[in-house]
Every structure is written in C-alpha cells, then in structure tokens.
Write a structure and sequence with these properties.
- The protein is an alpha+beta fold.
- It has 13 helices and 18 strands.
- Helix 1 (13-24) packs parallel to helix 5 (154-167), helix 7 (300-313) packs across helix 12 and helix 9 (403-413) packs across helix 11.
- The longest helix is centred in the last third of the chain and has 30 residues, at 455-484.
Length: 495
Amino acid sequence: MKPLDLVVVGGGIVGLGVARLAARNHISVAVLERGDLASGTSSASSHMLHGGLRYLEYGQFGLVREALAERSAVAKMAPALTRPTRFLVPVYRGGRFGPWKLRAGLKLYDWLSGRRGFAPYGWAGARAARALEPALQPEGLRGAGLYSDVVMNDAALAVAVARDAAAHGAQVHTRIEVIGAKPLDGGAIELSARDLGSGTVLEFPAQVVVNASGPWADETRRRLLSGLRPGDPDVAPLLRPSRGVHLVYPTLTQRHGLLATARSDGRVFFVIPFFGHSLVGTTEVEVASPPPADALRPSLEELRYLQRELALALPPVAEFRPIAALSGVRPLLRAEGAVGHAPREHKVIEEHGIFTIAGGKYTTFRRMAEDVLAHVARRLRRREPIRDSEEPLPAPITAGAGLELVARHAVQHEFARSLDDVMRRRTLQWLEPDRGRIVARFMAANMGKELGWSTARTSEEIEYYDTAVREEESLLARVWDGHQEPSHRARRGAG
C-alpha cells in the first residue's frame, strides 16, 4: 500500500482545518477521529469567532489581530453559520475597569481589526444602556460600551470544513482510534487504528503524521512515540488543559450579547445570543493532561457559579431555568501562573516524524493549519507554496427540510454515524423544548434506513440519546434546586 503524504489524528476543527488545507494543495491526507467530528472541544466552545477582547489586558496584541482577521475571513466563508452581533459591556462604580479604560480597549480592538471590521465601537450612558437592555442591573451602572463580534455554530462549521476537505480528496474516518505506530523504511510511519464499530485493526502508512487531538495531544504523543522509540523516557507534557462550561437559557437579552464581569471573582463571562437562545459562560477549571473521563463533565459548582453571576448581572431573568449545559476542555499550552492567564497562542513541535499542534483557539484554526502545513511541506520536500482560499465552505442543508432528507444528508454528506451525531452536532434539535425527544425517534428510523441498522440498534440509539438528556436534565435540576435555596437568594440580595 502506497503511503499517504499525511495522516491527521483528530477530527476537531484544527485537525479538519489541516486536512482541508492539505487536500486543497494536492497533498494526500486522511483524518482519523475516534469519536464523531467535533465531538470534543470543537462543539463545546463559546460559539464565537472573536479576537478576544479580554486578551488585550494581557498584552496579546498579535493574537488578537490575527484572530480578528480570521473572524472576518471565516464569517465570509460560512455566512449561513455565522452572525455578526453587537455586544454590550456594562461599567459599574467600583468595577474592574472604568469608562475611559473600556473605551480605549474597544478603540484598540476596532483598530486591530483593520478594514475588515464590523460596526465600530460606541458608548451608551446608563439610561441609554438600560434602554438597549432593560434587564441590566441598574444599581451603580455608569454606562456601557458597544462593540461587534461574530456568533457561530461551532459543530456545524467544523463539519463544513470536513466537507470541504473531502470535496478536495481528503479521507475522513470517524469511530476509528489510533492505537500505535511503527517506523517504515524511508522515514515513513505506519499507524495502527482500531475500527470501534467492527473491532478490525487497520493500517495507515504515511510520510508524515500530524497530532491534532486537542486536549488529548499529550496522550497521543506518548502512544505514538512509544511505538517509534520504544524504551525512550516519556516526553514532557505540552498542555495544561482547562475545562469551560456553559449554560443554555431561553432568550435573556433584547438582541445584544453581553460581556460582564463576575461579582465574586472578577472573571469575564458572556451572555451570547445563540439561535433563539442565550449561551452563558464560561468557567476555567484546570484538569490533568490527558484529561480523565470525568474531566468533560460540568460540575455542580461551576454551573451554580454561572447561574449566580447571571442573576447579579441581569436580575429580572434570575428565575429563568437553564435548559441545557455544555462542557469542553481547552488544550492550553503549559505555562506558569493562573490557568486563566495561560497563553492562547499555539505551538507546532516535531518529534521523529510526528508534528503536534497544541494550544490556539477555534477562531484561528486556519492560521494553525497553515503553520502545520509549512512544517509538513518541508518534511515532504515540497517546493510549491501552500495556498489557502476564502471560497465559501459547503452550505448546510436548507432550514425546514424534512427529517428524511436531513437524515440522508447527515449520513451521506456530513459523516454522521449515530443519532447523537445528528441531534447534537448536525442539527439544533437538542435546543428544542423537549430536547428533541420526539424528533429523535423519527430521525433514528430514517438513519437506520441509510445505515442498515437493525430494530434493536435503532432502539439502542434512541435509548442512548434519551439517557444522556435525562442525565443532563437531572444535573440542571440540582442546579435549579441550589438556586432556590435561601442562602443563594440572600447572596443575590447582598450582591
């Protein structure tokens, strides 16, 4: 079997971005993902393409400029999956920053975005700010800054990138786990991977391997290098992962996003308009590298923290119940100091023919892919320059399409292989009042026709989805019960 030029381990936004750029530059490439596309961090983000306004405080001007340029480019490439949105930043007496500092930061943010920015920043006095968003806490309000960023559907955007990669010749494999590597003659590497459906072990020879497994990059490095260099000591970890959680509510604001400062610890959190709902987040809790299984589960403490801070920022909506929760682990680069101040830059390292991409943020996935492909091209002794394009990504299926068509499209064109793939990452059914339970039964039946499921398999898929939703609802009920306790009501009143 002739080796591929490149095999990418990891089907999140970065791995898919690498595969897309490789395929567009006529580099033969395969993606190996042990779960579904974007089933880890890439479907649990804050759902924004943004420069990172708060990173200006840490002097990360280059990162912000790069991310702002990518914000505009990606929004242009996926207009059906992105939405420019105005954000409000309320300023309070005794708060983390005053009006002059905020205005300076917003002006710098606009300047760094260059000519590809959206509506420029502005300022509203206290009365005008409450006219824009009446739910704002009025006590101590001095006014609010306004600026623009982009809200996006993270999982759907990752799938669109995968479709673009496949359209240009990339192989995209899901439910396949890399279990080892061995060296081949001429410097090539053979990856062994187990098909998690059949249990079959497959071999993927490649000239170059890219490890783009996000928070699991250290574990992937260890597994691959132990096969290539048996007996060598384990490599030092690159990552210092952190968990971020979000709550999803019915719509909480009039039409703006909100960037607020938590009263309890001064952290920044967002209220983001998201497809008829509001996404509230995020938290920052350090986890081990590689993350243990329970690291992906949001804790009761984190969710209650978000609910308390939301009630302080928007008192009238304090009695709104959350309808869903998200939790993801960020692949942050290892650094000294608090994990909340860890750098958001990325790094590419080479170890015995394996290139690991670590760090970074969703918005800059194309820049990360370019950096990786520059290393890959040198390894392949390629002379032609690597070129990217801002051509539109494949569009999602038309809104309102029938369930049979949605299921067929998800299986045939979007690499979906389970009911959960479609309900949570190919559609927004998980946001419906019943969390998509009714639709799930029809969707499973239609997917079963496409994938040849037995009656028992179809029932298993429905039960798996139901169980996951019930567990999430149970956790949210505990969050709400804590919210109703007198001690929490007293803390809100004291805030």
